[in-house]
Write a structure and sequence with these properties.
2 copies of one chain form a homodimer. The first copy, chain A, is 41% helix and 11% strand. In chain A, helix 4 packs across helix 15 and helix 7 packs parallel to helix 8.
């Protein structure tokens, strides 16, 4: 590897930035938000503008951040990732040891693609999907009564749920007539029950998504869905579609109408543009709309290869995040879409970012001496303005914000009320929030005083479409991995989820011992037994 | 007022707690999670157990926190609030200067109630609602074709949306047959468009919720909904119900089928148990179920009057939060319900908590010298386990967690898979997470090492019902105001939302000037003009 694999704090420019951070740009100073600043602090690609004049930095910091990007070799690593270098590893220790090739799913427009083999596999799956969707359209694949399918239930959890769900909600304005999608994810039995009870199962397809074919929640929910089909006198095999790794226990034509494949070089949280999202989104929006998602994502992936911050919004957003997090000391980042359709996009990013960068170890297996991934949270505006924005403006904690907005609405169903359309009000509010957080306000009443200097950025596109949704998704995916490269952490594994699984199985074993009349082996795991008892799980004969 | 109105840092026990915080209880030490600790560290009320053995404290800290509660007079202030003392004020400055009486809505079971006048008003509204719901049931109020109403659209934002929505989702398992509820909140025109396009408006009631009768988003969405009725050839007056302040511009029988009243002593974020939630929840669940919500809330409100931390889960949760936030330095709190039905409860709490306690000013108008309200975020488990829990376990930031779970499911549609039901898996996972976060795990592979000492609590009840939902809501409402009392801040105003409104109106004025061919008055507000231009709002003739 040619890039630097030392941590952030060992890069030459680190000390310079630490020094600059002691006295960050004062957004409340008279004239601080000068028109030239506002128009110059802007980077654009793939339909998006990133406005960042309301961040606490000046040209000196910006040039320091450019050096930080260069010295860390973040963009070179991004290119290496796209080409298929094994990036998912911890040197010297047992690790997943895999390539990271989610970008290959949308590299179908380039010739040659960055990684020919992975993109060939992506194309083969897309062709299979195209055929299947055409069969649905032509009535060649139907239920036993010869009726078309109108509903689709996506069963998956984590990356097999959050990304696909966020994308579906974002684009449901473009859903084809009489095509509805529902989601089951939680092992909570009420999740499946609530979804299944309101469906005409006879006209419903069920997509089961698990790379390993062994995700406990997903298998459990699949079994519940199959039980509902049996109860309704229907043959589940005519309705269930598998999205899984080739050769997994789920890759079984006996049990599924079709199987679509995903590959081990695509992590769950980066899988929305693979078959994980494709089958459901293709059903809902049509094949061509899904290809448009890929086109937008690919365009942004290519912009993410630019070394110049001003030409690479993903890299810029990554470095602004590092400035706020590591240098100005802000622990969280709020993602605030001014678009109701992006309702669940923050939850997807929360997953993608926090599971990727919530790490304490460098890729050399050493403890990081600085802060890594922030806590990501957020809800759509203007709703949030009537909820938690009070704290953003006047709280003691400072949460840098990333606004996302669009110049036009999706449905074009709008009215002029008090001199403006709803869409104008929406955009005006977003821009106003960035200005208000930055500039603050003096007032003699201390309760009407706003300290200002609360940093934010604005991502803006013309309209939320399949293309811009793809670009936005890729922008954030690239932001996250670029931050990981600068921090020198492995953004692609998730060892932190294992311990909870082990302890949950231990508790389930305890419960099972008791149900079968066994004795409590208190000696071995006193805390698990005590927790079950304190929780009242073992005290009475409950339905549990 | 008899209680102490100095800040947290001036209370006698503050220094003692600061000292104890230098060396907090080590949850990873051998035997730290002893069975006695696990069973003793528990407080119960109104159907809920609060388990807190996995917090970083011991008996010395607990006794310090009890002293902190006592010295701040938090419980006395809570009682004063319930009785009608003007708690919403900043001494010496213009402020809202109001009573805070959301608890009066559910104080209908006591004789005499804490505040007779407010509870009488609550009862009168409930009686009006009871009559209206019975008229719907008996077919005395129908659409013009004499058909019953099957759907209800709630139009409101902030407190008129998040709390009611969270409660409806939590309890939709108990919805009456053929009664569905939908929500429109965002000024984003696509929010209304997406909801309205799929409804049979002729059989739909629309509840418009705004205390002032002048919330811009809500009036705008109401106008869009009325336009849809007109377009469908329907008379909106036969379908629209107002929930508003008595005498507000919306309190107009010409325009609404019915009006239900809310009062200025109930803040929006605390209004879910007033008519704000009552009309919609009564429609969906029936009147009796809504009364059960009030019964649970009232029971918890009464437990919140206990001075002993161990008998008052709300007070204990408040003090545990202060321990983690002010003494151990954790900036956020994650609310993690192990119940898919509580999907939107964290968003409601995010509002209720951050809008209440995101303040920098004491009730004496002085700047607070310590940290106030935390950033609140969260998503249901087990979903979160496949998303952001990686950071909770192995990230560099520590986010204290509040788990919420139930021993039984709502739908009772469950299966045994691999030896356990889904409900058992769900509860086992929640308990396991608390143990794993606390105890951590040693491993030779540094990537499989868990540092532990990540604090959490568990709130547990038998089942999510109207009663327990009411209790849970009241528990958190009490927690939030009790924290505010300890911090000596005003948890009941929201001055921090004003500046954004002013700037949004300025931007809308700019847009209007341009649409009418006026000149840009760049001198006065150069930053607003520059922001509009940089955002590309004014550059071309867009539909905007």
């Amino acid at each position: 590897m040619t890039w630097n694999t030392t941590g952030l704090d060992e890069l030459p420019v680190y000390e310079k930035l630490m020094k600059l951070a002691r006295n960050p740009f004062d957004l409340t100073a008279p004239g601080a938000l000068a028109p030239e600043r506002i128009s110059n602090y802007k980077a654009s690609a793939a339909g998006f503008d990133l406005l960042f004049s309301t961040q606490r930095l000046d040209d000196a910091v910006l040039s320091g951040l450019q050096q930080l990007a260069d010295q860390s070799g973040a963009v070179d690593q991004f290119l290496a990732m796209k080409r298929g270098v094994v990036m998912n590893r911890i040197a010297g220790y047992e690790s997943e040891n895999r390539q990271v090739l989610h970008t290959s799913c949308r590299d179908i427009f380039s010739d040659p693609p960055c990684n020919a083999e992975a993109t060939l596999q992506a194309k083969q799956q897309l062709e299979k999907l195209d055929v299947f969707l055409a069969q649905l359209d032509k009535g060649e694949v139907t239920n036993r009564r010869g009726e078309t399918f109108t509903d689709y239930v996506n069963i998956g959890i984590g990356g097999s749920d959050l990304g696909p769900r966020a994308l579906f909600l974002a684009l449901s304005a473009y859903a084809r007539e009489n095509r509805r999608v529902h989601f089951i994810s939680n092992v909570d039995p009420d999740d499946a029950a609530a979804v299944l009870q309101n469906l005409d199962l006879s006209r419903t397809l069920v997509g089961v998504v698990s790379k390993s074919g062994s995700t406990l929640e997903t298998l459990t929910n699949e079994a519940m869905a199959r039980a509902a089909y049996t109860r309704a006198g229907l043959e589940a095999g005519n309705h269930f579609v598998a999205i899984t790794g080739q050769g997994s226990p789920m890759d079984n034509p006996q049990k599924y109408l079709r199987s679509f494949h995903m590959y081990d070089y695509i992590g769950g949280r980066y899988s929305a543009t693979s078959m994980v999202g494709a089958v459901m989104l293709g059903f809902a929006l049509g094949y061509e709309a899904f290809i448009e998602i890929l086109r937008g994502a690919n365009e942004m992936d290519r912009a993410a290869e630019e070394k110049d911050l001003k030409k690479n919004p993903a890299l810029l957003l990554a470095l602004l995040g590092i400035w706020n997090h590591n240098f100005l000391g802000h622990e969280t980042v709020a993602v605030l879409p001014y678009s109701q359709a992006l309702l669940r996009f923050p939850a997807h990013l929360q997953q993608c970012d926090m599971e990727s960068n919530g790490k304490s170890l460098t890729r050399n297996g050493e403890k990081v001496p600085f802060s890594t991934g922030p806590i990501v949270w957020g809800e759509p505006g203007t709703n949030g303005q009537h909820a938690f924005y009070q704290l953003l403006h006047q709280g003691t904690a400072i949460a840098p914000a990333e606004f996302i907005g669009f110049r036009q609405s999706q449905h074009k169903f709008d009215l002029v009320i008090k001199g403006s359309t709803s869409q104008q009000k929406l955009v005006a509010n977003m821009l106003a929030q960035a200005l208000a957080l930055a500039a603050g306000q003096k007032d003699e009443n201390p309760n009407r005083f706003f300290a200002g200097n609360r940093p934010s950025s604005i991502l803006l596109a013309d309209k939320l479409t399949p293309y811009t949704m793809g670009a936005l998704l890729a922008l954030y995916e690239a932001k996250i991995v670029l931050q990981g490269f600068v921090w020198n952490i492995n953004s692609f594994d998730q060892e932190g989820v294992q311990l909870g699984k082990v302890l949950a199985n231990r508790l389930l074993d305890h419960m099972s011992i008791l149900r079968h009349g066994g004795a409590k082996d208190r000696e071995k795991h006193p805390e698990s037994w005590a927790m079950l008892e304190a929780a009242g799980i073992l005290q009475e004969d409950q339905p549990l």
